[in-house]
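Q: My labmate handed me this sequence with no annotations at all. I'd like to see what the chain might look like in three dimensions before we decide whether it's worth expressing. Could you predict it?
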Amino acid sequence: MVHPAPDVPDRSYYECCECGYREVTDSLESCPDCDGRTRNIAVPRA
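A: Here is what I predict for the chain of 46 residues:
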């Protein structure tokens, strides 16, 4: 399931750093499509 960029900060949006796959979930350790590394894109970066 692919979602657009996050616009609600209280939800967890994860994006694969390898293929760009996105999912709304509580936790996503690795990408279900390519097994790549994921990051929470709902967390502000400094």
